[in-house]
Amino acid sequence: DLEKIIKSDEIINLISNEAAIERLIQSAKEHIKIHKVKDITVIPFTNDSYPELLKKIPDPPISLYCKGNLNLLKNNNNLAIIGTREPTDTGLKIAEKLAYRFSEYKFTIVSGLALGIDTAGHLGALRANGSTIAVMAGSLDKIYPKENIKLAEQIVRNNGLLVSEIALGEKTQRSSFVKRDRIQSGLSLGVCPIQ
To answer: Residue 2 pLDDT more than 90?
Structure first.
């Protein structure tokens, strides 16, 4: 039956080899343990905590790496505020004010922790004592950009959440930023692009 579903002999041999499967399981357990030491929770697609909205996109991440308030993953009342890294002063004010207002209506603000509009969105939510999720393009132990390390810490301290699909030790690729964008939109009811 496997031969009808799986076309690769290599994969069939691997999943038929109990010793190989046991090694993969041990490797996965070690992987989870390494993240746990750094207060990062690994949430696979099959976990009940995996966000329902994110499951509906065409290519959801296999796993999410999360630090902070995991309860925010269960919330569907999210708005993504995104935009340029080099906004005008007006753009920054609009992003912060929108985040503030939507936070007052109990929306969680989702953004990418980038400089510019993303930063303003996170700050607006924090100023309103609201919730915010920062979706990172890289692993959670390497906050990028460095200018937003303190903002990332503030988000976690204020009951927010950092999220990535990149495991500790994995390299960030140029495509990681585009992949991050699909997570932001996948977590959200709507996306508000500013500038």
So the answer is: no
Which residue reads 């004592």 in tokens? 129
Give the pairing of strands 78-83 and 190-194. Answer: parallel
Cα torsion angle, 108, 159, 64, 167, sign:
positive
Q: pLDDT by residue (tens digit) across 151-184?
A: 999 999 999 999 999 999 888 888 888 899 999 9
**What percentage of the chain exceeds 70 in pLDDT?**
97
Which phi and psi angles does 119 have, rounded to 5°?
-60, -45
Asked if residue 152 lies in contact with residue 143, where contact means CB atoms within 8 angstroms, the answer is yes
pLDDT tops 80 at residue 73: yes
Question: Cα dist. 118→6, 24, 105, 145 in Å?
Answer: 42, 38, 19, 12
C-alpha 43/C-alpha 165 separation (Å) is 10
Cβ neighbours around 123 below 10 Å, total: 21
